[in-house]
Amino acid sequence: MAGRAAVIASIMVMIGGLASAQTPPSPAVEAAYRGLHAAAANGDAAMLGRLIADGAKLESRDSNRRTPLHVAAFKSHETIVAMLAKAGADMNALDGDAYDVVTIAAVANDTQMLRLALSLRGNPKNITSPYDGTALIAAAHLGHVDVVLQLIGAGAPLDHVNNLGWTALIEAVILGDGGPRHTAIVAALIDAGADASIADRQGVTPLAHARAKGYDAIIQVLESGAK
Q: Are 136 and 156 spatial neighbours (Cβ–Cβ below 8 Å)?
């Protein structure tokens, strides 16, 4: 039992860096940008419009395989994202860390960008991140309640299991803090139909994890089925 707990603890330390696993362009990288990437980073709609009209390559990639669309999402430039999408940029392209615009917005707790991305056919079902997860799993882990609700409403897969063997529900429990935000996320997932019987690779269910952590509010939600 102690060995299993140690393994889970080490994984939790690693996963605790999920948000930072995303790699926004650094100031040095931004300074070197030219063309669409520069326009996206600077939020320069006029420059972007001219470049698009001149036939600039929408899917060009920087050193971390970020397209101009990824850059605009990281910078929260909604107008630029909308312009690129209208011009035909791939809303579901993955960068070098396997993140799409939807997951970038979800991790950043950028609800306006997420709403825009979903309206522009960003797919909440995409498999993203080095963990083969989803935007919903990332948001559940990070305690982003409004993002979780948006993604559930958009049809994100509730029971996807990532390459660590964890669902959004499991991550909300074992990587959450047991407080109001993660409790609300657990309740939202259960109410939406998430399967609380799905266990991790050690056979531990979300309820068992919550009991082990003493997360009384989450225990109550899981035991009552969030009804």
A: yes
Q: CB 42: neighbour CB atoms within 10 A?
A: 17
H or E element: which one contains 69? helix 68-74
List domains and CATH numbers for the chain. Answer: 1-22+99-227 (1.25.40.20), 26-96 (1.25.40.20)
In tens, the pLDDT along 131-150 reads: 999 999 999 999 999 999 99
pLDDT at 20 over 50: no
Angle in degrees, CA 222, 225, 227, rounded to 5:
130
Q: CA-CA distance, 125 to 159, in Å (whole number)? A: 11
Residue 102: HSE in the Cβ half-sphere, 13 Å Cα cutoff: 29
Asked whether 201 and 165 are in contact (CB, 8 A), the reply is: yes
Mapped onto helix, strand or coil, the DSSP state of residue 92 is: coil
